[in-house]
Amino acid sequence: MPRRFDTSVLLAIAALLIINSHLEAYYPRPWMAADGLLGVSIFYMLSGFGVQCSLLGRKQSFLDYYARRLWRLYPAVIIVVLAAHLLRGSAITDMSPGQLFAAFIWPTNYTYVIWIVPFYAIIYFTGRGATMKRSLWILALLAIGYAASAVRDAAAPGFPAHLQLGNLSLLNQTMYYALAFFIGAALAVSADRIDISGRTWLLLGVMILIAVGLYVAAKYVMVVRGQGSAAFPVLHALVLFICVAAFFVTTHDLTMRPLRKVPLLALGITLLAAITLETYVVHQALAHWSKLVAIRFPLNIAALVGLTIALSIPLHLLINRLTPIWKNREKSVG
What we know:
Blueprint: H1 8-21, H2 36-57, H3 62-88, H4 97-104, H5 111-127, H6 132-155, H7 170-190, H8 198-224, H9 233-250, H10 253-260, H11 263-274, H12 276-286, H13 290-293, H14 299-333
Helix pairs in contact: 1-2, 1-11, 1-12, 2-5, 2-7, 2-9, 3-5, 3-12, 3-14, 5-7, 6-7, 7-9, 8-9, 12-14
């Protein structure tokens, strides 16, 4: 079984980045709402890492494995979507079965859910007994698929001069998020063999800063200036590098040791890492609430974040309370 890595710092960073990316209406300058791509990419990478560790750690049937994955995902999604519909006064009874399925099950309005549900199924068959060789083959195939889709997108008539990453083709987005997810899986397979020294930790930290600087500059040129948008794979490559480097830097003892010496900071990071999924779904449901948007900056952001956390904690506790019921039911059925 792979050794355990404390990914709480990276999870907390991802959660904050995703929250920030939905705040265009809250900031005096919309461009300050960044960077969702990096946050979501970290989420996918850590999901791949966690699932692969689980598959390497014990044998489990597909139904047992998939039920556990979906149980971790869907209670929060269904509860929040249902609450949002009720608060808006939407008549759920008027929705067709197809509309209900799309709203509550798949694809939903959550980007993470759209791709993670099929990724969970695929990795079960690729991840059991995974080796580094197999992981590299999977990444190579995904990279080829990504490159082909990127070339097709860039050559498409009417490809915008001002890049909009969210408007890239479904195929390209699928290939990119699959790369992030299976990079995480490859890390789970190989991480035991990688021992980062203090010097390498420092070097990776410097390289992250350089890569972030390059990413911000390239994104400005492509998105704001409208130049070289066809080179968008450069942005994706930089983000994936940042994700991997940040994994090793943030899980290293040189990062974790000083954080543990500040109890309140450590507690905050641990709490945010524990409720990342709940925070993600709750925040996205609240972000467009006009009463919050209307509050003066920066109090509007403080109110949104505070309300998000205040609702996410009891939601997390409720789901955890229901989890033993699910486990007991599995035992009685089995």
